[in-house]
Design a protein that fits this description.
It is built from five helices and six strands, in the order ααββββαββαα. By secondary structure, the chain is α+β, with helices and mostly antiparallel strands.
């Protein structure tokens, strides 16, 4: 029995790793508790709030990426139709709607094992995916949530595959 390994796995907190990753890149973060940290980053369209939460009992690290688009439409059926259509396009994670803030959010979780290797790399990869998906979907969410465009019409540009560079 390796006591050192058990001590490390029992008391390891991935939020420390998240802080190290973003601190090394000079991002400002807010350690809200021992198991939560928030980081505001500048995206292509607008600022995004990355929120990491560690659930120790489940050994699960959760990431939420909140897009700064406040909904002005009253018809929630459009929002939920858009979520269903957008989530069909994703391989990893999902979009949800934060009712309290009236904003869309990308979510994904990672299970952490005692034998986890390259965890910092997985956090970086997950963050990259979240930011890229939010940037890709931002214009779509924006026109539906602020202009009331029909979700299928807003998704129409995603049907085209771009080839080459302009």
């Amino acid at each position: 029995m390796n006591l050192a390994k058990n001590y490390i796995s029992e008391f390891y907190n991935p939020i420390d790793t998240v802080e190290n990753i973003f601190g090394a890149q000079n991002y400002q973060f807010d350690r809200r508790s021992n198991n939560e940290v928030a980081i505001e980053i500048q995206g292509k369209w607008n600022n995004m709030l990355l929120f990491f939460a560690w659930e120790e009992n489940m050994r699960c690290l959760h990431l939420s990426c909140l897009m700064d688009i406040e909904s002005t439409i009253e018809d929630r059926s459009k929002i939920f139709e858009l979520l269903a259509l957008v989530n069909e396009e994703l391989w990893v994670g999902h979009f949800s709607y934060w009712t309290e803030q009236k904003m869309p959010v990308f979510k994904h979780s990672l299970m952490v094992t005692d034998t986890e290797t390259e965890f910092a790399g997985k956090i970086s990869q997950l963050t990259d995916i979240a930011v890229k998906e939010c940037e890709r979907m931002y214009p779509i969410f924006n026109v539906v949530l602020t202009k009331g465009m029909e979700p299928r019409q807003a998704l129409y540009p995603l049907e085209f595959e771009t080839i080459g560079r302009a």
